[in-house]
Automatic annotation (TrEMBL):
Residue segments, region Disordered: 62-93
Any GO CC annotation of this UniProt entry: stress fiber
Bias type Low complexity, positions: 62-81
Protein name: LIM zinc-binding domain-containing protein
Domain of life: Eukaryota
Keywords: Cell junction, Cytoplasm, LIM domain, Metal-binding, Repeat, Zinc
One MF term in the entry's GO annotations: muscle alpha-actinin binding
Gene3D superfamilies according to UniProt: Cysteine Rich Protein
């Protein structure tokens, strides 16, 4: 301890003029503060032992001043004391100071011994006190959470009802009855809002009783099978297919796997074909007619835009005659195949002729 070292060193140096009652009581006060703060009885025992050793050194130094050849003396804690080689250096005043210091050490040891005894008495008294009311317990006692309680004072922290010897649960070092603990701290089921005490299922970012997690439509349990989520609601596969899955616009059957989205509708890949010839589209290009997909040929056929001469679609200029449409190069005389101009042909049985061929055939 620093106190003992400084004290003995000053004896070795022959300077005891500043060792007085005030200094010793400062040590006592600081020690009491340390003990009050830490409540450490072992530290107090160690300090008493050090004070005893210091007193032994003082006693030995007092008896050693008459001898000029005193050998080196070591205390039990290896604190060395070397008297001056010339005994005349120890005056009567310094001898008196040593005696006074020895008396002060004796007083300090007595004070600390009494403090140690009082502290132990208080701690023993605390061990028999009720944690709630701080009064001594003389009858029945409940031991819980590391403390003693009167039976009537061991109550639920929430409902304030007596727990007694019933089951209780701890939260932040406070007791709760079984019902309140589960109501306050257990996860709640998203379906019934009751606390979950046994197995728990987590789905849709919520917690559920296993028996409460069911299909929204048919109420079948979903804990052992896959489910589909629609707007934060769970459905079994059958209910999803029958009630919620998008329908193919052509076959009107539910789409459960790959699909094509086109013309503001959903299609099975096998159903998205020309609605006239049922041939798949070789490229991503298709033709929309009345919100249905067609190949190029049947699209123009539906619109009446096929050339009456070559039967190919007309995508540019066309000639309309005899309620039909023609590529300009395909509007020819039915006999001589001469190219005709609109307004300069003759017609017979819905067939166009040039003037010469018409005269030859019909006049």
């Amino acid at each position: 301890m620093n106190m003992k070292y400084n004290f003995i060193d000053r004896i070795n140096d022959g300077d005891l003029s500043e060792i007085n009652q005030k200094n010793l009581y400062c040590i006592s006060n600081s020690s009491e503060s340390l003990f009050n703060e830490h409540n450490d009885m072992i530290e107090l025992d160690n300090l008493l032992e050090d004070l005893y050793n210091a007193k032994q050194v003082l006693t030995h130094s007092d008896t050693s001043t008459s001898s000029s050849s005193s050998p080196l003396f070591s205390s039990p804690n290896s604190v060395s004391f070397r008297p001056k080689s010339d005994s005349s250096q120890f005056s009567e005043t310094k001898k008196s100071n040593i005696i006074e210091a020895e008396k002060e050490l004796e007083k300090l040891m007595s004070s600390l011994t009494m403090y140690k005894s009082d502290t132990r008495i208080n701690r023993d008294s605390d061990r028999n006190c009720c944690y709630q009311c701080k009064k001594n317990i003389s009858g029945q006692v409940i031991t819980a959470l590391g403390y003693l309680w009167h039976p009537e004072h061991f109550i639920c922290n929430h409902c304030k009802k007596s727990i007694g010897t019933s089951i209780f649960y701890e939260k932040n070092m406070k007791p709760y009855c079984e019902q309140d603990y589960f109501d306050l701290f257990s996860p709640k089921c998203a379906a019934c809002s009751n606390p979950i005490l046994d197995k728990m299922l987590t789905a849709l970012s919520k917690t559920w009783h296993v028996s409460c997690f069911v299909c929204y439509s048919c109420k079948k349990r979903l804990n052992d099978e896959s489910f589909l989520e629609i707007k934060e609601t769970a459905y079994c596969k059958n209910c999803y297919i029958n009630e919620l899955a998008p329908k193919c616009v052509r076959c009107n059957q539910a789409i459960t796997e790959n699909f094509i989205s086109a013309l503001n509708s959903y299609w099975h890949p096998d159903c998205f074909v020309c609605q006239e010839c049922d041939l798949p589209f070789n490229s991503s290009c298709f033709y929309d007619y009345e919100n249905l997909p067609y190949c190029e040929f049947h699209y123009h056929q539906k619109r009446g835009s096929l050339c009456s001469g070559c039967k190919a679609p007309i995508n540019g200029r066309c000639i309309t005659a005899l309620n039909k449409k023609y590529h300009p190069e395909h509007f020819t005389c039915s006999l001589c195949q001469k190219k005709l101009n609109k307004g300069t042909f003759k017609e017979n049985n819905e067939r166009p002729f040039c003037n010469q061929c018409y005269q030859k055939l019909f006049f």
